[in-house]
Give the backbone structure.
Amino acid sequence: MTDFDATRARFSLPDGVIYLDGNSLGPLPVGAAERVARMMTDEWGALLIRGWNDAGWMQAPARIGDRIARLIGAAPGTVTVGDTLSIRVWQALASALDLMPERRVILSDSGNFPSDLYMADGLAQLKSLGHELRVVAPEDVADAIDDTVAAVMLTEVDYRTGRIHDMAGLTARAHAVGALTVWDLAHSAGAIAVDLAGAGADFAVGCTYKYLNGGPGSPAFIYVAPHMAARARNPLQGWLGHASPFEFARDYTPAPGVAGMRIGTPPVIALAALDAALDAWEGVEMANLRARSIALSEAFIAGIEALGAGLILASPRDPLARGSQVSFRHEHSYAICRALIARGVIGDFRAPDVIRFGFAPLYVSPGDVAHAVDILGDIMATRAWDRPEFHARTAVT
Amino acid sequence: MTDFDATRARFSLPDGVIYLDGNSLGPLPVGAAERVARMMTDEWGALLIRGWNDAGWMQAPARIGDRIARLIGAAPGTVTVGDTLSIRVWQALASALDLMPERRVILSDSGNFPSDLYMADGLAQLKSLGHELRVVAPEDVADAIDDTVAAVMLTEVDYRTGRIHDMAGLTARAHAVGALTVWDLAHSAGAIAVDLAGAGADFAVGCTYKYLNGGPGSPAFIYVAPHMAARARNPLQGWLGHASPFEFARDYTPAPGVAGMRIGTPPVIALAALDAALDAWEGVEMANLRARSIALSEAFIAGIEALGAGLILASPRDPLARGSQVSFRHEHSYAICRALIARGVIGDFRAPDVIRFGFAPLYVSPGDVAHAVDILGDIMATRAWDRPEFHARTAVT
C-alpha cells in the first residue's frame, strides 16, 4: 500500500492553503530548489562544458523519460523529455500523418485542448495537401473513426470536465480501420493509471507541470510505441535527433525510436527540477493512487451536492469515467473561484462558467476535502463571492 | 568605458581554469543559483498557480526578450524567449516561406550549423511544394541571391571558423530581389555588436547558453522586425501565441508581432536563470565589448603563431571579419584539445580537425590569453598531447 501521509510530506505546501489546482500546476517538491541550485553550482559552475559528458546532461532526457515511462505504462526506452507540449503534439501528429500519405483526415474532439487543435490546424495548413481537422463531440469520436482517418488525436482526460476517453477501445477502433493514434496525457500522467502499452497507443505526449510537479513550464514528454519505433520519423529534425549529432554531418540520419524525437539542446536546469520532482513518485503504486483519487473526488462531490448551493456537476458522475479532477458549473463561477482563493482554497476557473478542483492524491488528503467543502459552503451561504474584487478579471486564471 | 574587471567578477569561474569555451556554454553567473532557488521557493512554492499573475511569469518571455533586444540592436517589443534554437530557426524560416508563396528556394551556406540545415530540410519536405534548400560556400552567398530565392537563412558568425557574414549587405541584397532573411545569432549575440534594426533583418533567432550565459540548454530567442510584425504568421500556433489564450476559443487568432511567435507554456525556471545571467550585461557597451574581444583574439593569434607549433589559423586573419572566437587546425586537434583541458585550458574540438577558442570579453582577461598561450606552447613543445587517454573519444566534445 502506498503511504499517502508520507507522499504528502514530500511537498512544500504553504500554511493555510488547500491546493486543489495540481491539475494546472503541481506544488514545489521538498528539496527541489536545493537540488537545482546544487546542480547549477556543482555541475554547471564547476564542470562548465564538461557537464555534458561528466554530469550526464546529454542523457538526461532519456533517463528522466524512463522515470516517467513507469507512471504511464510504457516500456523503458520509449519516452524522451524536452520542449513544450504544443511542440510534442505537433511532432507526434506530423509523424503520424507522414506514415499515412494517402489519408487526409485528422480526427479530434471538442473536449481537446484548444492548443492541440490550433497546432493541428497549423500543421494541416503547412502541409498544403488538403488535410482536414475534423472535430466532433467527445461521445461521437468512436463512430467517426473510419477509413478516411489518418490519425485520431485526443486528450485522454478532458481538461474542463475530467471525462476519460477509452484509450484502449478507441485505439483498437482506429487500428481496425488502419488509422494511427496520438494521445495527449496532460491530465492523465500522474493522475490515473495510464497503460500505453496495454492500450496499444502509437504516440503519446504529455506535460510534466501538472500532476508530475516539475514546475511552471517544465519540459514535456513524448512516447513512441515499440511497434512504431522503426517507422516513425521526426519532422522537426534538430541535431539531437541525429544518430551521430557530434559528427556534424551535412545529411540528417535519424536516431532510431524515441531518441529520434529529440530536437534541440536539452533544458538541463529545468530537467534537474523535474528529476527532483519525480522522486515524489518513489514507491507509489498507480492502482493505489487511482483508488485514493476516486475516494477524494467522490467525497468532494457528495459534500458539494449536499450543500444545495446551485453548483452543477460538470464532470461524469461515474468515477471510472472521470480523471482526478471534478468540475462544477455556476453562473458566478469566476467570482466563486476568486472568493475560494481568498479563503485559501485554490481551484481554477475555465471559461465560460466552470470551476475545476484537482485531487492530486500525493498531497491532497481527506481532511483537505472536508475543509474545502466547509469553506465553499460558507461562501455560498453568505454570498461572500459577490464582491467587486472577485468579479474583476485578471490576466491569467 | 566598460569595466571588464568588474564584469569578470560577475562570474563564478573554477580555480585553475582558463575558460575559452564560452562560445559553447557560458559560465555560471554569481548569484544565479540562489536566484533560481529563491524563485522556486518564494514564487512557485508560495504562490503556486498564482505565480502566473502575481510573479509575472506569463510576461517573462517579453520582459527578458527586451533585455536581449538591447544587446542585438533590436527595439523593445521585437524579441521573445522560449523553446530551443532549432525550433526558432524552423519557425522563422516557415514564417518567411509562408510570405513568399511563389518562390521555392531556401538559400543557406556550408558554414551554417548542420542543425539549421536539418531543420530546413525537414520543413521543405513537410511542405510538399518542392522547396529546395540550396547550400553554397560562404563566399558565394552574395552571388547566389537571385529572384528565385524565398529566404536567405544564414548564421552570422560561423561556428567553426568565426567568419562573420555581412548582415547589412546580404540583407540589402536579399531585399533588392524581394527575398526575406533569417539570421541565426547563436555566435553573435553577446559576442559582437549586432545591429538587427540597422541591417534591416527580417527575422533573427539565437540561443542564450553561449555568450549570454543562461545555462545548459537555456531558452532561445526570436526577433521579428517591426516591418514584418503585421505580416509574419507563426505556423507553430500554440495557445500562448493566441491573442487571447485564456478565452480557450476554438479558432486561432494570432497575437500581433513577436508575441504571436510564442508557442507553449513558458519555461519559468529556466527563464529565471537566464534573467539572472543577463544582469552581467548591465552597463556593458557593445562597442567596448567588441574592442576588447578583438584585442584578446589578436593577442592569442600572435602568441600561437609565434610558437611555430604547426597550428594553422582557420579563422579570418582580419579581426573585423571574425567573431569572438579563434579556430586553429591541426592533424591532432582532438588530442591537443584534451591535453589542454587536462591543464585547465578549456576550448573545444569540432570535427574533423578544428580546435576552437572563445574569447568572451565579460570574463576572459589578457592574462588568461597569455597564460593559455604558454600552456599550449608547453604542450606542443613536449608533445604532451600524444598520450592514449587524449586520443580516446568521448561522447560529447
Remarks:
- Chain B touches chain A through 91 residues (CB under 8 Å).
- DSSP finds 14 helices and 13 strands in chain B.
- The first helix of chain B runs from residue 4 to 8.
